[in-house]
Specification:
alpha+beta, 4-stranded mixed sheet, Trna Endonuclease, Chain: A, domain 1
């Protein structure tokens, strides 16, 4: 999926009065291409890095609400991929979604929209388009997955698979394996619905863990991510007081130690 195709999806998901402005589109494009430093992005615009950072925070919140999933600059591609894979064609008398392939390479797909007159929306047309769409979607997913099992090498969208679970990075997989060895109950990347100052919203902690009758959250902290203290306070108000951040650099070599440290904290709470 290219950045232009991703922006086309974003445009269809956002309301007309929530469309990205030029600076937000710049931030989206740069983060999609892997340039996630706000300082670096500010150098490409006429704005300072603090303004870029503030506008980016507003952008991630806006996209999180639109896609019903927490969006951050380091999981942007994986969110869009999951959204695309969840979609199934919706046909009625006025609208159809089509997918156009660029040659035989199924590395991306363009979404186009067309208005159909009532006379065109026949049962035969409905069935034909639905069959074509599902066939194309299956081929895209098949091409992206490569029929691999277990942990996949990092794809363009950054999806990793382990025991039929999806993760955003290798560090999450290492922590999941370590948690599994302790036999505790844990929910990776699980959405929670809770009340916030802005109303009811979805939040998605990296790991929600149950141990000795207590719930805690374990987050992996990457260099380009920041603690969401507002979100942490919201979870704490619902009884989840232990929210621990571990450095991503430690996860590869010290996953078991990180998990044990967290379980000890949870036991003492």
């Amino acid at each position: 999926m290219t950045v232009d195709e991703a922006l086309a999806i974003v445009e269809t998901v956002l309301d007309d009065d929530e469309q990205l402005n030029n600076v937000q589109e710049l931030i989206f494009r740069q983060c999609w291409e892997g340039r996630c430093s706000y300082e670096e992005i500010s150098q490409l615009s006429q704005y300072n890095d603090e303004y870029i950072k503030a506008l980016a925070a507003k952008l991630w919140k806006q996209l999180s609400e639109a896609f019903d999933e927490k969006v951050k600059k380091n999981n942007l591609k994986s969110v869009l991929k999951r959204y695309f894979r969840r979609q199934r064609i919706t046909l009625n008398r006025t609208q159809v979604i089509g997918v156009n392939l660029s040659g035989a390479n199924l590395s991306g797909a363009r979404l186009s929209f067309a208005n159909l007159s009532e006379s065109d929306s026949s049962a035969d047309l409905h069935g034909a388009i639905l069959a074509d769409y599902n066939t194309v979607l299956d081929e895209i997913i098949k091409a992206e997955d490569g029929h691999n099992q277990g942990i996949l090498s990092k794809s363009e969208e950054g999806i990793y698979h382990w025991n039929d679970l999806c993760f955003r990075c290798e560090e999450e997989v290492k922590i999941a394996e370590a948690l599994d060895r302790t036999s505790v109950l844990f929910l990776p990347n699980s959405k929670a619905r809770l009340t916030t100052p802005s109303g009811r919203q979805n939040q998605e902690p990296d790991f929600l863990i149950f141990h000795q009758g207590k719930w805690g959250i374990l987050e992996i902290s990457h260099p380009d991510t920041e603690k969401d203290e507002t979100r942490d306070r919201q979870f704490a108000s619902h009884g989840i007081s232990i929210i621990h951040y571990c450095d991503a650099n430690r996860c590869t070599e010290e996953a078991d130690r990180i998990v044990q440290e967290f379980l000890d904290l949870l036991s003492q709470a």
